[in-house]
């Protein structure tokens, strides 16, 4: 089952709470809890925007719990396949499977527990459409992206990003049980945002990806081509981000989307123009972090705009 090694932080060598805390940290890391938190956040926004969310709050809560569990299972599946690759990369070589703190068998058991719990929660508390979309996202990331797209094409993050773009739609369907234009555009928004979000990090880690023989775009097509693609997808994200403002007549969100998009495109433009070197690598990491802030601003503005305008404050 779970195997805990002595090396690392030293927690595993100690009895009681500290050893348990070390295992708990490893389990959260294995489930990619930080990534999952962003999935849950965008799903929650999809639920808040859906009509009838107050009346259907049990389904909304079940949807969020199911997404969290399924997203964690996808993260575990991703790392089960890649422990040898993770060992070659500075960003991932301290992961529990890469360092052997959790065994392969323990990780498989953990993934099974998470996905079975997700299916149970979603089947009991939501509807077949929500369950189907959630499983589609989990399989899309944990299996299709990890096993087939990532090792075979430099455009892996483009098509693989669709799995991570589904949570707003899943949140909406958990409440309504049906599809609609607004959540579909939110899926499109995250879909076009994902390459511009991830490729700056890939630029920073291009030597590690090359050593691990992973065909990320900076490795196969070079830094200049990757920076041009980042800018193109940043502009596309800016354009798509304005659509929900027109769909809902939300000028508050529209103003935030317009200003935030201009800021993010400006960062992508500066990244493209910088000389290749250590300073550019540092700035690329800043662009990666800024992209998360950008998405957070957009989705927060959607909620604020809906609340303010629906209560007639303006």
Structure, explained:
It is a single chain. By secondary structure, the protein is mainly α. It is built from 16 helices and no strands. The chain has helices at residues 17-30, 33-49, 57-81, 83-86, 96-99, 104-125, 128-149, 156-165, 167-176, 181-204, 206-211, 217-220, 222-241, 243-248, 251-273, 278-310.
Salient structural properties:
78% helix; 314 residues; 16 helices; mainly alpha
Outline:
With 314 residues, this protein is an all-alpha fold. The protein contains 16 helices and no strands. The radius of gyration is 20 Å and the shape is globular.
Please give the number of β-strands. 0
* Largest beta-sheet details: none
Distance between termini? Answer: 58 Å
Radius of gyration: 20 Å
**Uncertain runs:** 1-15
Report mean pLDDT, rounded to a whole number: 90
Strand content: under 5%
What is the helix content?
A: over 70%
**Broad shape:** globular
- The secondary-structure element order is HHHHHHHHHHHHHHHH
Total count of helical runs of at least 4 residues: 16
Structural class: mainly alpha
Write the layout of secondary structure elements.
Layout: H1 17-30, H2 33-49, H3 57-81, H4 83-86, H5 96-99, H6 104-125, H7 128-149, H8 156-165, H9 167-176, H10 181-204, H11 206-211, H12 217-220, H13 222-241, H14 243-248, H15 251-273, H16 278-310
Helix pairs in contact: 2-3, 2-9, 2-16, 3-6, 3-7, 3-9, 7-8, 7-9, 8-10, 9-10, 10-13, 10-16, 13-15, 15-16
């Amino acid at each position: 089952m779970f195997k805990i090694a002595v090396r690392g932080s030293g927690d595993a060598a100690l009895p009681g709470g500290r050893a348990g805390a070390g295992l708990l940290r490893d389990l959260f890391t294995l489930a990619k809890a930080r990534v999952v938190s962003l999935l849950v956040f965008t799903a929650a926004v999809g639920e808040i925007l859906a009509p009838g969310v107050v009346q259907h709050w049990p389904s909304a809560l079940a949807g969020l719990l199911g997404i969290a569990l399924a997203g964690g299972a996808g993260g575990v599946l991703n790392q089960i396949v890649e422990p040898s690759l993770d060992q070659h990369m500075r960003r991932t070589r301290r992961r529990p499977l890469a360092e052997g703190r959790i065994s392969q068998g323990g990780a498989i058991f953990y993934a099974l527990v998470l996905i079975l719990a997700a299916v149970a929660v979603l089947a009991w508390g939501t509807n077949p459409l929500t369950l189907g979309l959630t499983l589609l996202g989990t399989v899309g990331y944990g299996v299709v992206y990890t096993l087939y797209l990532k090792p075979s094409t430099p455009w892996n993050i483009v098509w693989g990003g669709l799995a991570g773009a589904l949570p707003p739609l899943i949140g909406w369907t958990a409440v309504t049980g049906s599809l609609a234009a607004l959540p579909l555009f939110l899926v499109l928004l995250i879909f076009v945002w994902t390459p511009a979000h991830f490729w700056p990090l890939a630029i920073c880690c291009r030597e590690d990806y090359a050593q691990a023989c992973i065909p990320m775009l900076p490795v196969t097509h070079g830094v200049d081509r990757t920076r041009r693609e980042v800018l193109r997808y940043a502009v596309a994200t800016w354009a798509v981000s304005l659509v929900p403002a027109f769909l809902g007549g939300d000028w508050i969100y529209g103003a935030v989307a317009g200003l935030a998009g201009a800021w993010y495109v400006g960062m992508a433009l500066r990244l493209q123009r910088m000389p290749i070197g250590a300073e550019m690598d540092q700035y690329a990491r800043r662009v990666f972090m800024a992209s998360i802030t950008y998405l957070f601003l957009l989705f927060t503005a959607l909620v604020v705009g809906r609340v303010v305008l629906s209560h007639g404050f303006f």
